[in-house]
Amino acid sequence: xKAPYRxxxxxxxxxxxxxxxxxxxxxxxxxxxxxxxxxxxxxxxGLFLPGQGEGSLLTGAADDGRLRSELVITARGGRxxxxxxxxxxxxxxxxxxxxxWSSYLFRGExxxxxxxxxxxxxxDIASGIYLIRQDPPTAPRPxxxxxxxxxxxxxxxxxxxxxxxxxxxxVRAGHYSIRGPGRPGExxxxxxxxxxxxxxxxxxxxEIRVERGWAAVKLELTELxxxxx
Length: 229
Prior knowledge:
Blueprint: H1 3-24, E1 28-37, H2 39-45, E2 52-61, E3 67-76, E4 83-90, E5 97-106, E6 109-116, E7 122-123, H3 125-134, E8 141-147, E9 150-166, E10 169-179, E11 192-198, E12 205-211, E13 216-221
Parallel strand pairs: 7-8
Antiparallel strand pairs: 1-2, 1-13, 2-3, 3-4, 4-5, 5-6, 8-9, 9-10, 10-11, 11-12, 12-13
């Protein structure tokens, strides 16, 4: 691997360690997941991509008072240094996304994007998860999503209540889907984000599916937090 990639990796590892340390001190909520690729496209993608691994969703207040949410997906059974990362900082008063970033390191290729988001109502994958947890919609809700440096019109669709198994327990969870296009004639987001939120006080995401055209990744919560049991 080239030196710049090693430097980027080292920085991401340090950030992850710092987040984990904060979480251990109680300032962050940390949810742990197992993930795998889904479906025929996932099977085909698995010929070229890692097929499973671990994930974590960290949510909490940063030192400057802003809320931070970050979804980190790491590979297993492939190269130890491969990861995908989606993060955002939010204004705790308005819930607006102030800054968003995404990055990955795969087969020696590293790419990262970051943007300051001044437009109200814009989310990314991480802040979208947070805001839906805070206020699960009861009817289709239009939103705008920042993805890979571009803005897209999308809609959040509630799809009813379903059952999910977590650690041998059956949990009732509301299903919500972010998909595009939200408005006719606008640029179409080719991704999709589906959430299953437990019927508990925290609306814990027990399952997350991220679809990015070439493959879909399914993240399953390994264990419900004590507050959700």
